[in-house]
């Protein structure tokens, strides 16, 4: 029987032909999958900058890529490039420098951070240390900070990635908080479904662990302060969870219409079958108490995939480890799947790599597809104190073999950004 090139709605079926990933656990699919299924943590004490006066002193930083200290855009760009290189190579496209479709890249909010501001001020200050606006302008006029200006101009990370891989059209930069990586994939799926492109390069990247980010999230009471031991801090779904741990990383997916992929003899790694999104205007950081937007996003993704809740074999959780998020995610999944949710495995790789923020949805997309391909569920580590209010199968502490055909991957962000994706080995 010939394989279908369209879904149940007659839209082009979206295949994945290449994947790339880099996290604090290492570079590439092999290193990350080995560590994730071994339950190994990449969270450690921060060595990049002094942390003595910070409440949170741990993160899943990527320290094996040398970049200018504390310069998030430079690291974010480098991580995006590493992930894209692996994905494009695996897709085996005719040329590595001529990608046959557009670029959608999720990047963290771009701004000059305090260390750079301080350096700029010092460059224009007088010997007494006083700084005036005129002296700041004088420091800027030296030209020493021109590279920073390029980095901090919105969109230039995407521009350079687009130039590096030869993507078509104007690249799209986006930032929808912690759902950004999933949103980038959704935009690629929609472009292919509309017939605007035969392929899309979708990336989520984030290298923004710096003092200012830690302070800001701490002021929101969002971060774990359980600094010792670092690898035990991230506790999604546990009763003693106290916040998320920041992480850095990137992931990239090469999406193609199934017809195009088969025509060139590409190996299809899986399919993006469904996308769902729903805004939540209840609060800047909290979800609506009844979980209605989360429920709507999950249902929309499953329906868009042409599936029912009973078809979902595994949930790759947003699973941040904050008291609010884990409770609301459990509520949303249970409202959609009913009593069956008690036996559907749901686990959080953030327990091992931390919350990679803008990159999270893309990182978890790669992990979801690897879960389908390998038939093994990554665990939720640090699960020692179950929360009776969340009676779910969180794949506690140890990976598990399983027959997985369809995965729901959740991404919920501050500002009411809710994006869910459904991946499959093949359409139903």
Describe what is shown at a glance.
The protein is 33% helix and 18% strand. With 428 residues, the protein is of the alpha/beta class.
Explain how this protein is built:
Belongs to the thiolase-like superfamily. Beta-ketoacyl-ACP synthases family. Keywords: Transferase. InterPro entries: Beta-ketoacyl_synthase, Ketoacyl_synth_AS, Ketoacyl_synth_C, Ketoacyl_synth_N, PKS_Beta-ketoAc_synthase_dom, Thiolase-like. One of its GO terms (molecular function) is 3-oxoacyl-[acyl-carrier-protein] synthase activity. This is Beta-ketoacyl-ACP synthase. The mean pLDDT is 89. The protein has 2 domains: 14-111 and 152-424, 3-Layer(aba) Sandwich (Peroxisomal Thiolase, Chain A, domain 1), CATH 3.40.47; 114-151, no CATH class. Helix 3 (114-123) crosses helix 4 and helix 7 (180-193) crosses helix 13. The protein has helices at 28-38, 72-91, 114-123, 133-141, 146-151, 156-165, 180-193, 211-219, 258-263, 292-304, 323-337, 350-353, 360-374, and strands at residues 14-23, 26-27, 44-45, 58-59, 103-106, 172-174, 199-206, 249-257, 270-279, 314-316, 346-347, 376-377, 400-401, 406-413, 417-424. The chain has 428 residues and is an alpha/beta fold. Strand 14 and strand 15 form a beta hairpin. It is globular and about 70 Å long. The strands form 3 sheets. Strands 1, 2, 5, 6, 7, 8, 9, 10, 11, 14 and 15 form an 11-stranded mixed sheet that branches. It has a two-stranded antiparallel sheet with strand order 3-4. A two-stranded antiparallel sheet has the order 12-13.
């Amino acid at each position: 029987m010939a394989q279908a090139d369209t879904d149940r709605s007659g839209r082009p079926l979206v295949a994945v032909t290449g994947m790339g990933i880099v996290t604090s656990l290492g570079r590439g699919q092999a290193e990350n999958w080995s560590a994730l299924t071994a339950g190994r943590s990449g969270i450690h004490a921060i060595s990049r900058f002094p942390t003595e006066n910070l409440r949170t002193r741990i993160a899943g930083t990527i320290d094996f890529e040398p970049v200018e200290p504390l310069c998030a855009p430079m690291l974010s760009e480098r991580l995006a490039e590493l992930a894209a290189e692996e994905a494009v190579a695996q897709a085996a496209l005719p040329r590595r420098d001529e990608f046959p479709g557009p670029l959608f890249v999720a990047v963290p909010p771009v701004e000059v951070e305090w260390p750079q501001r301080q350096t700029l001020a010092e460059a224009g200050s007088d010997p007494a240390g006083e700084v005036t606006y005129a002296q700041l302008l004088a420091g800027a006029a030296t030209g020493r900070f021109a590279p920073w200006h390029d980095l901090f101009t919105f969109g230039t990370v995407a521009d350079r990635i687009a130039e590096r891989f030869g993507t078509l059209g104007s690249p799209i930069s986006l930032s929808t908080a912690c759902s950004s990586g999933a949103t980038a994939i959704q935009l690629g799926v929609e472009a292919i479904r509309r017939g605007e492109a035969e392929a899309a390069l979708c990336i989520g990247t984030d290298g923004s662990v710096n003092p200012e980010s830690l302070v800001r999230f701490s002021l929101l009471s969002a971060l774990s302060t359980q600094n010792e031991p670092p690898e035990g801090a991230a506790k999604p779904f546990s009763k003693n969870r106290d916040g998320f741990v920041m992480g850095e990383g990137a992931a990239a997916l090469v999406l193609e219409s199934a017809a195009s992929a088969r025509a060139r003899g590409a190996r299809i790694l899986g399919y993006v079958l469904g996308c769902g999104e729903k805004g939540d205007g209840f609060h800047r950081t909290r979800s609506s108490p009844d979980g209605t937007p989360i429920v709507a996003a999950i249902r929309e993704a499953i329906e868009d995939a042409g599936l029912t809740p009973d078809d979902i074999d595994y949930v790759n959780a947003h699973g941040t480890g904050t008291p609010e998020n884990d409770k609301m995610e459990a509520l949303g999944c249970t409202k959609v799947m009913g009593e069956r949710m008690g036996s559907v495995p749901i686990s959080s790789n953030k327990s091992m790599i931390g919350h990679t923020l803008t990159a999270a949805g893309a990182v978890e997309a790669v992990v979801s597809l690897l879960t389908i391909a390998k038939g093994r569920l990554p665990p939720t580590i640090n699960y020692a104190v179950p929360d009776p209010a969340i009676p779910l199968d969180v794949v506690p502490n140890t990976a598990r073999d399983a027959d997985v055909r369809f995965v729901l991957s959740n991404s919920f962000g501050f500002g009411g950004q809710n994006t869910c994706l459904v991946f499959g080995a093949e359409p139903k």
